[in-house]
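Ticket closed. Logging final result for Clavaminate synthase-like protein.
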Amino acid sequence: MAAAIQTVDLSAHTLQHTSFSSSSSSSSSTSPVLAQKQEAGEALVKALHEKGFVRISGHGFSFAEIQEAFDWSKALFDLPLAEKLKAPHPKGSLPHRGYSSLGQEKLPDRNRERGSQRIMDYKESYEIGSEEDDCQHNIWLPEEVLPGFRGYTSGLYERFADFAKIVLEAVALGLGLDGEEREELMKLGSRPHCQLRLLHYPTIDKDSVGREVGGRLPAHTDWGSFTMLFQDQHGGLELLDPSSGEYVRAEPEEGTILLNVADMFRRLTNGYFNSALHRVSIPNRDSVHQAGIPSRYSIPFFVGPAPSHTVTSLPRLITAECPARYDPVRFEDYGALVGKSHYRSEDP
Ligand SMILES: O=C(O)CCC(=O)C(=O)O
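Final structure:
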């Protein structure tokens, strides 16, 4: 396994969150806060270019907030299946909302072993969007099934959305963007069109490890702009390091959010940012305790542009050494193409 994942501290951005544009930054050389923001923005850009993933500290989420989010997630997945199915994700890929039971979503494995019959996608999930989303409406459990869940998770969505904007501002600063190019970058995070996901990977008993179940989530890239993730203390997430060609284990680290680049960010930057291939794996059977592999919870927030937005590479990143690599793409067309292969549209 390759080196540890770099951490970038964004506290200068979160503590002093002001509307900032580099065109109005004449005082940046004299203000220590602006200098810190610039430094953090550049460090973030460097990590997203070299690796496509990074840990973020100074994000402003308290330990208690993160714990509360996991408590709600556990309360949800502890419900009997029949209750969870009162908010069913539809059979097709859209709307990408509500509860998906084990095996309902199947990501095609980008690193698939030929002929393998093993389950590589072993999880249940609940997808939540903005209450303001005009394209996909939420699918909620009846309030009495889990009182407070809707209110809590809607608030969590907004909390993540606030932070997503801060991340984009930091990236804009790090890339030295202003004017229209900065606006194009900011459009990669459309507040009502992101997605909060609660994920639960159930316990895997020792006998099934490697025989029936080969992994928890197959290797894939995300199709939005970028993803921010909290995970519990049970690891398993791995990201491909493009420099070494090896997977890096994203060991849980308290107080940090893991951020990975997704396909729209790669396209906007003409491939300057690496869209991170990642997976959730399981250890070899020999190293697994008799009780099996414990269940795992994670909470990703997928940041994306408005569905109608067309993502075009920034002119400054199209050069003689790096000619245009991607055609402009409407986000909903791209998402529909990718999403179709993830969800079965028929009953099993
Ligand atoms: O659970 C994780 O750590 C990763 C989740 C993920 O990659 C996804 O939901 O696309």
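The first strand starts at residue 7 and ends at 9. No further action required.
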